[in-house]
């Protein structure tokens, strides 16, 4: 009798385990049925397009002769908004890692410098506080390594980091009549890092992401003969970029 009761309890345990396994398989199957784009994660390569808003400014390093100057007292950077458009090319390396190249990336970036002038020249329409607006049209190639989390239903989070190279189509480094200009070099390179979120819809993936993009090179083409240029030694670009990416 003891053996029979033992066998019955074992059978009940096996039956309960089997029922739990069947139930979990049914739930998993139901979840798979509710997934949007279930085959997307098996793609080796896919494309996307990004709509971009950027907030840009300069990091200013003053020239050693700045203290000896009696014309420009203070130079302050001011953050300004811009916009852009980008193409996304993503290569899947593993379930966790992807490589993404962004090309072409076209950014319209605006950066302001606020000058406090001690002796403004009224003949040149100068005031005690002058704002110099520096416009850039940046053709860039950022390359990122992405680390992705597990997919939770139709949601996933990812982080990324990498580098960039940019060419300024609006560079004025060769301008001759540049008395009131801040000259910028054509090329810049830097590092980028950020975080994004994948939202899976039936026909596309929407990925809002934010990143910090810092230039490493000095993009200031200094001219010691110009008042607004001679006070500055180095200009490094600083940018916060928010993107809405559509992928399929």
Written overview of the protein:
- This is Porin.
- Residues 1-29 form the signal peptide.
- InterPro entries: Beta-barrel_OMP_2 (IPR025665).
- Keywords: Signal.
- Residues 49-220 form the Outer membrane protein beta-barrel domain.
- It is a single chain.
- The chain has 248 residues and is mostly beta strands.
- The chain has two domains: 1-34; 45-247, Porin (Beta Barrel).
- Helix content is 15%, strand content 54%.
- It contains two helices and nine strands; from the N terminus they run αββββββββαβ.
- It has helices spanning 2-34, 227-230; strands at 45-62, 72-78, 80-92, 97-117, 129-148, 155-168, 187-200, 205-215, 232-247.
- An eight-stranded antiparallel beta barrel has the order 1-3-4-5-6-7-8-9.
- The protein is elongated.
- Mean pLDDT is 85; it is low at 1-8 and 22-31.
Provide the fold topology:
Layout: H1 2-34, E1 45-62, E2 72-78, E3 80-92, E4 97-117, E5 129-148, E6 155-168, E7 187-200, E8 205-215, H2 227-230, E9 232-247
Broad shape: elongated
Order of helices and strands: HEEEEEEEEHE
Can you count the helices?
2
Enumerate the strands of the largest sheet in spatial order, edge to edge or round the barrel.
1-3-4-5-6-7-8-9
What's the β-strand tally?
9
The third-level CATH topology of the largest domain is: Porin
SS class: mainly beta
Helix fraction by DSSP (H/I, runs of at least 4): 10-25%
- CATH architectural category of the largest domain: Beta Barrel
Tally of structural domains? 2
Terminus-to-terminus distance: 64 Å
- Which ranges are low-confidence, i.e. pLDDT below 50, for 5 or more consecutive residues? 1-8, 22-31
Instruction: Return Rg in Å.
Output: 28 Å
The average pLDDT is 85
Domain Outer membrane protein beta-barrel: 49-220
Keywords: Signal
Protein name: Porin
Pfam family, one: OMP_b-brl_2
